[in-house]
Amino acid sequence: MRSERVLPLDSMRGIAAVGVTLFWHYSHFGPYRPFEGFAAEWLYRYGWMLVDFFFVLSGFVLSHAYLEKLADRRVRPYEFFILRFSRLYPLHLVTLLFVATLQFYRTSSGMGSFVYHENDLFHFFLNLGFLQQGIIRTEYSFNGPAWSLTVEELSYLMFFVSMFFFAAYRRLAFLVLVGVGILINMAALHVHVFYLEVSRGLVGFFGGCLAYQLHHFAREKNQSFRLAALASIALIGVVSHYVQSGYPRSAQILLIHSLVIFPAIVLIVLNAPPLKQLMSFRPLA
Q: How many CB atoms lie within 10 A of CB 276?
């Protein structure tokens, strides 16, 4: 199994993180927007979708690291979950306590809560148990963006079940999970587990898993250049359509980005040698 770190994926995660934090979430802090009307315009308006890029990258990375190990039962269940949980929970706990302290200070000082208002004890324990916006449908609370970590953990669980019990049919399992995400999205369901945030995780994460399957197949068949070319055609076609007709409604935006645009970017970078070399620049990664 190829277990080496894929540096271009780290670079792409870093760029996406900058887009989310310095542009999309910056809008909470004031009316002034640097570079507005220039290249940053898309980031201010649609930068929230870079979270879905993280889901795609996570599915791709987890497939790269664990696909064969889980299929061959070389990783015990508790090892897998301890490793995945330990990567997300410590930082989640620190940020939760930090934000809870600040929210308590603001509320007790008469300033009111900041951005998210459901900051009671019930929501605190939901956040503490990684249950908010994943298993239980609630309002955003405390460190609101942590909803993506909860959905990520749920995706890890689905990935493990798919690989540990249905390894021989993993592609079908991934397609089914993407299909479930699409159905939730298109039906606009709003019940526990079946709602938009979980849909975004399923479509993005398992779309990334399927993108890895294409990448792996192309490498085995020495067709990396052809895959990069096909992905480029798909990306150019979708972007050209957007430029001519404008963005569709939110449900379609999410699906098209998670199933076409973001996987295409990953496949182009990894299978076009000049881009792969550029994105492997270690300081960037």
A: 17
Q: What is the dihedral of CA 71, 76, 77, 79, to 10 degrees?
A: -120
Which helix (H) or strand (E) element contains residue 62?
helix 50-71
For residue 233, how many other CB atoms are within 10 A of its CB? 11
3-state secondary structure of 281: coil
List residues bridging with 195 in a β-sheet.
190
Geometric angle at alpha carbon 17, from 246 and 35, rounded to 5°? 55
Give pLDDT tens digits for 129-138.
888 776 777 7
Q: pLDDT tens digits for 21-63? A: 877 776 666 666 666 666 677 777 778 888 999 999 999 999 9
**What tens digit of pLDDT does each residue of 77-133 get?**
888 888 888 888 888 899 999 999 998 888 888 888 888 888 888 888 888 888 877
Where are the strands (E) in 95-237, listed by range?
A: none
- Report the candidate in 58, 65, 76, 79 with the shortest Cα–Cα distance to residue 9: 58
For residue 204, the SS3 value is: helix
